[in-house]
Write a structure and sequence with these properties.
Layout lengths: L4 E8 L2 E8 L2 E5 L1 E4 L11 H7 L3 E5 H6 L3 H6 L2 H6 L4 E5 L2 H6 L4 E3 L4 E4 L6 E4 L1 H10 L4 E3 L11 H21 L4 E6 L5 H12 L5 E4 L8 H11 L9 E3 L5 H10 L3 E4 L1 H7 L2 E4 L2 E4 L19 H5 L2 H9 L3 H27 L3 H16 L1
Parallel strand pairs: 4-14, 5-6, 6-10, 10-11, 11-12, 12-13, 13-14
Antiparallel strand pairs: 1-2, 2-3, 7-8, 8-9, 15-16
The structure holds one RNA strand.
RNA sequence: GGAGAGUUGGCUGAGCGGUCAAAAGCAGCAGACUGUAAAUCUGCCGGGCCACGCCCUACGGAGGUUCGAAUCCUCCACUCUCCA
């Protein structure tokens, strides 16, 4: 109860406008949470991040467990104090690493044996240890330890994995103490499994429910088949979180399906790789056509990058591997995502989300032609 | 003046009779990235085509040997090193 509260402020179709209260502030939903895996949103100082003012960011259990280690984070006053961040923090449980680091882990019913990707040291992560680590780091929202299965597994394999995730969900919940805890629905691209998974997870006393196991290589239409099928089944009185998604278009479509929370490395990683989101479409800043472009990256953006430097300068920084390229690019991309979410919230609040979405998507398809 | 070494695609630099339109890196051009092992990765990169193949022009220049040459020989030009 006191860990977290969710208030549904209004709806527009399936889209929801809400508010999540955490020990580190109130979050307006739908929300996008920038990813800061190792207690750092790559490319930004905490001060720069504060200015962008996301209300919540992500950290990662597995990565922080390896370095600097939970003992140290705890000793230094928790993850907020450690990184000098006063907003909310949600941690991924390490479940995604079962997928992304599949080659260096071994899954058992009890938990997962990882060999550190850094030096090979063995680590053990289980529902209990994952929740304990997240709690000791002082996060606002912890995620249940789940298995995120790869795309392409058989129905039987995904079912087996999902059932273990369900058992792990109960164990995670039994370990919950001070941090809020979200459960995760699995089931791959199999809709019947998704239905069953929602039934299992929603029946438990989680503070929020997430859709996991998407954007793991499946085609986009299959992903939205899953999201559109699953989101309406999720309990309406708790936050709904679509894990690891996505592109700006995905966010708009996710909101339309009734999702409240998103996270994705896309704005930060793409920024470092010179791929920038603008109101006029995606831009590869390294492209020769920007070499002498004196204009702002996005004329409709008021972020520090867009109000300070030109496309020509950004290209120059990127082409020359200047660190400032990552900084400027990340500031803009994160800013773009946060602005998009703000616009989405406004549209829902004014009951104009449907036309907003249609306008957004048609603009997108125009750019692609 | 003498003795050596060298001249390869935008650059650096492999190749030393055929499997070479020529390794690799860089530069250049374009693309990908979805709970971050990613400031990463991929493709193209002499020219032209009715392009998973064909045709031109190509390894300083000009000749020559050979079925066949970037690879061997001759001459020329230029560069570098050492000795006078």
């Amino acid at each position: 109860m006191s860990r977290l509260s969710f208030k549904l402020l209004g709806t527009d179709g399936a889209a929801r406008r809400g508010e999540i209260t955490t020990p580190h502030g109130t979050i307006q939903t739908p929300v996008f949470m920038p990813v800061g895996t190792r207690a750092s949103v790559k490319g930004l100082t905490t001060e720069q991040l504060q200015r962008l003012a996301p209300e919540i960011i992500l950290n990662n259990t597995y990565h922080l467990m390896l370095r600097p280690g939970v003992d140290l984070v705890e000793q230094l006053g928790g993850v907020h104090k450690f990184m000098g961040w006063n907003g909310a923090v949600l941690t991924d449980s390490g479940g995604f690493q079962l997928y992304s680091l599949a080659s260096i882990r071994k899954i058992r019913e009890e938990g997962v044996e990882f060999r550190s990707h850094i030096d090979g040291t063995p680590y053990f992560l289980s529902p209990e240890t994952s929740v304990e680590i997240q709690t000791r780091m002082g996060v606002d929202i912890a995620m249940a330890f789940d298995e995120c299965p790869a795309y392409g597994l058989s129905h039987a394999e995904v079912e087996k994995s999902m059932e273990m995730t369900h058992r792990w969900a109960k164990r995670s919940l039994d370990s919950r103490t001070t941090s809020a805890l979200f459960g995760i629905v699995q089931g791959g691209v199999h809709l019947d499994l998704r239905t069953r998974s929602v039934e299992a997870i929603a029946a438990l006393d989680f503070d929020g429910v997430a859709i996991g196991g998407v954007s793991v290589g499946e085609p986009k239409d299959e992903m939205f088949e899953v999201v559109n099928h699953t989101a309406p089944l999720l309990p309406g009185d708790r936050p709904r979180y679509l894990m690891g998604v996505g592109t700006p278009e995905d966010l708009v479509n996710g909101v339309a399906a009734g999702i409240d929370m998103f996270d994705c490395v896309m704005p930060t990683r793409n920024a470092r790789n010179g791929s920038l989101f603008t109101s006029e479409g995606k831009i590869h800043i390294k492209n020769a056509r920007f070499a002498a472009d004196p204009g702002p990256l996005d004329p409709n953006c008021s972020c520090i990058t867009c109000t300070t430097v030109s496309r020509a300068y950004l290209r120059h920084l990127y082409v020359n591997d200047e660190i400032a390229a990552s900084v400027y690019n990340t500031i803009h991309n994160v800013s773009f995502y946060l602005d998009l979410m703000r616009a989405i919230r406004q549209a829902i609040a004014s009951n104009s989300f449907t036309p907003f979405r249609e306008g957004f998507l048609s603009r997108l398809s125009r750019e692609q032609t």
